[in-house]
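Appendix B. Raw example, untouched.
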Amino acid sequence: MVDPTTLLAVVMTLGAALAIASQNLFIRMGTDEGNANEAVVVVIGVNVVVLLPLVGVAYYPEYGLTYVSGIWFMAAGLVGTLLGRLLTYTSINRIGASRTTPIVAAWALTSTVFGILLLDEQLTVLHLAGILLVMGGIIAIAWETNNENPDDLAKSELLIGLVIPLGAAFAYGLEPVFAKFAFEEGTPAPVGLVVKTSAAILGFTLYLRSRNSLPDRSMLRNGGMRWFLLAGIANTLFLLGYYGALEIAPVSIVTPIVITNTLWVVLLSAVFMPDRLERVTWKLVAASVAVIAGVLIITVNG
């Protein structure tokens, strides 16, 4: 029988997966007219604007933040929220969401390995089988989307399209481990979210300023702005569900389920996205079914 806490974490994580899938498609629509830097600024900005007042009121006056947890949450923000998103959005802009998402989903394997090595989390045989099934489905999706190549991308573009999201996968894989170290200090998840997103937007602002690349007011007239704002809202919902689940369940349970966003990206692309931006084939759908099967095994044996 599934533990109620684990079941709650699974439901929260599946909701987070749907939210992050929606964000990726909004980013794809937005970068058709805007760029990845603008997307990062807007999405992280929405995170801070929404979360800061909520956390400021709900947890006043004791926020449960310590020096140690603050350092770990800032590290999570710079690695996952900043570097991971920048690489992901750049890849979506280059090769599309349905190609980027499956490759980035390899972060679940990275974080699961880190969770076992650094956090002493347990991994059963059936749990491992579920993870391998999920990863097998994702590899099949990546293979199909790259061989389909509807935009006739050059080999160099396809290579870059692999390297960039793989870098994002590594960055995202480290983030939940850093967050777990922070949670050991007793800091609530929403407080940690504010710290990590604030660190990310501060770090990115300083980076853009050093390169004289800060977006100006003309960004507000960009046709992609509305999509970036929707992506920011979706991402904020993702963070609340994802970090809430991490607070009550092991990394090795949460992260494999989050990557069901691959399935949602495929399904939502097939229904809502124009063919010129995303193309979905029956092979993608079949591979996505393998992802769902793996998630069911992980859930039952969590």
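End of appendix B.
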